[in-house]
Write a structure and sequence with these properties.
By secondary structure, the protein is mainly alpha-helical. It contains six helices and no strands. Among the domains are: about 10-75; about 95-150, no CATH class; about 150-190, no CATH class. InterPro entries: FAM228.
């Protein structure tokens, strides 16, 4: 008689017949095909999404480059060429010829002055003999390119805003304010921070009492100081 273990093994072998194995393989193949279809669809969607993003970025880059080209073209037509035309006209006009003669004369005076003195330092000037700043004393200078108000496209938004504010302030005050006054009106009231120097210029520096060494506050503070701080017992004349 056969043992129970051999009978159990025989039953298992009968259970795992060809039909069962074929069914397992079919189910496995079906699951594999479903999984393959799923990630294939995902890969196709990802590939199409990447292509669309690349196409959009390429279009955006081309559009930005085109905008820069158009902006440069407008700026050249409205700003560069008018200014260049006035500069060329001034350089080719009679003023430049007179300036060139004056420069040559001043240079000759410099050579004569150097030959007479031997050595000429940059920080030593004798206006009665040789004045190196003769061309820069008077303003405006000998050459000046004058143009009408330029329609600069780089600051068109700021110019439009200034014009709108000018019209609004004109309706209130009855005066037509220049751009500088409009900019000052837009600024917040000083000081922005305690003892700040925002908007301080050379003309308004003296108004800052605590930072001006010649102000009344600093002078009174100096008078309160003792005069023996710099005294010493060393006799430097010995």
């Amino acid at each position: 008689s056969s043992s129970p273990s051999s009978e159990q093994t025989f039953k298992i072998q009968n259970w795992l017949n060809e039909k069962s194995v074929r069914g397992i393989q079919e189910r496995t193949d079906f699951e594999s095909r479903a999984t393959r279809n799923m990630y294939t669809t995902l890969l196709e969607n990802e590939d199409s999404f990447v292509k669309e993003v690349d196409g959009y970025l390429h279009y955006k880059s081309m559009l930005d480059r085109r905008k820069k080209q158009l902006l440069h073209k407008k700026w050249s037509e409205r700003v560069y060429f008018p200014v260049k035309e006035q500069i060329d006209q001034e350089m080719n006009g009679p003023n430049y010829k007179n300036l060139d003669k004056r420069k040559r004369t001043i240079y000759k005076h410099y050579l004569d002055y150097s030959n007479n003195k031997g050595v000429v330092f940059l920080d030593v000037m004798s206006p009665e003999e040789y004045d190196p700043l003769a061309l820069n004393k008077n303003r405006p200078g000998p050459l000046k390119a004058i143009t009408t108000k330029l329609d600069d496209c780089l600051i068109s938004q700021g110019a439009t805003r200034s014009e709108e504010d000018r019209i609004e302030l004109g309706c209130i005050t009855g005066e037509r304010m220049p751009d500088k006054e409009i900019e000052n009106i837009r600024k917040p009231p000083p000081p922005l921070v305690p003892l700040g120097r925002q908007g301080t210029e050379c003309k308004t520096w003296l108004r800052m009492q605590l930072h001006d060494i010649d102000s009344d506050v600093r002078m009174r503070s100096g008078l309160r100081m003792k005069g023996t701080y710099n005294d010493t017992d060393i006799d430097f004349e010995e």
